[in-house]
Design goal:
CATH class of the largest domain: Alpha Beta
Order of helices and strands: HEHEEHEEEEHHHHHEEEEE
Distance between the termini: 46 Å
Number of domains: 2
Number of strands: 12
Helix content: 25-40%
Structural class: alpha+beta
CATH architecture of the largest domain: 2-Layer Sandwich
Largest sheet: 7 strands, mixed
């Protein structure tokens, strides 16, 4: 099979041009050769902004010197091996719903990427709460969502700017699996199995995810999150699994994963009933463990 277009990362100038054309509704689109962190750069821009609104924005980079994942983790990256970008969106939501944006961003990205994979294999792409994307149970992509007030251009008390950053492994999965001591997947694995994915380029991947985020955030602003649990069920890799909830490597709770609620919290079923989980790392328990 020939090399997938997505695995041949275009130059920053080519990505800027291609994404600007693919995302005409985005007010600022830029792809850099190198930056410290796309999330941090957009966050600083949002906090410093004033005057007329001019979002959404998209910023990508071939390399991030200080890229971050959830819980402050460093995002390992090598030029050409990762597709890394962030978007900034205006959202109008009550403060208690802002944490829901994290699972919503993962869900929207998973749905979008499934559309770039042939129907027989697309369900192999799934989501692990709160927003990791997995290919056959190995991590393909991570997402970091950060929210700030909309600066001096704030239109109302519920006006915030959501910064959503994503890193997708294009290659290097084997090396990452060894260095991180856990299973990691990359887009090249999908390309080897799926002819549809093999025709997709980096611009297609980034643009389809950016559009999905924009549409999902606009829908949440207009209609709320009542439809989130049903959408999540379609991509949920943890459904029915016996899981542990970890805090700093220590098991704090254990039970059976039962989807999410309208706040995006993971529902954990235990002997005591159902408990919503807001934070924590999730580990699937070995099948030979006794049932909860």
């Amino acid at each position: 099979m020939s090399t997938s277009p997505a695995l041949l990362l275009p130059s920053p100038a080519q990505l800027t041009e291609g994404l600007s054309a693919a995302l005409p509704g985005f007010k600022h689109v830029e792809w850099k050769a190198r930056t410290l962190s796309t999330n941090a750069e957009l966050m600083a821009k949002a906090r410093a902004g004033s005057g007329q609104l001019a979002r959404p924005w998209l910023l990508g980079a071939h390399l991030q010197d200080s890229g971050r994942g959830r819980s402050g983790r460093t995002w390992q990256n090598r030029e050409g091996a990762n597709l890394m970008f962030s978007c900034a969106f205006d959202v109008f939501l009550p403060s208690q719903q802002l944490p829901t944006l994290s699972p919503l961003a993962g869900l929207a990205a998973c749905e979008a990427l499934r559309e770039l994979i042939g129907r027989p294999l697309r369900n192999q792409l799934s989501m692990k709460w709160p927003n990791d994307l997995q290919w056959k149970f190995a991590k393909l992509a991570g997402i970091l969502v950060e929210v700030t007030r909309a600066g001096t251009a704030r239109l109302s008390s519920d006006h915030y700017v959501a910064i959503i950053g994503m890193g997708i492994n294009l290659s290097d999965a084997r090396a990452l699996s060894q260095s991180l001591n856990r299973q990691v997947a990359d887009w090249s694995e999908i390309v080897q199995e799926d002819q549809t994915a093999a025709t997709v380029g980096a611009v297609d991947i980034v643009a389809c995810i950016a559009r999905a985020w924009y549409a999902s955030l606009n829908d949440a602003t207009a209609h709320g999150f009542d439809g989130l649990p049903a959408r999540y069920n379609n991509v949920d890799v943890l459904a029915g699994q016996h899981i542990n909830v970890l805090d700093d490597g220590r098991i704090t709770q254990a039970g059976i994963a039962c989807g999410v609620n309208t706040l995006g919290q993971l529902i954990l079923r235990t002997h005591a009933g159902e408990t919503p989980i807001s934070i924590g790392e999730i580990s699937v328990r070995p099948q030979q463990d006794p049932a909860t």
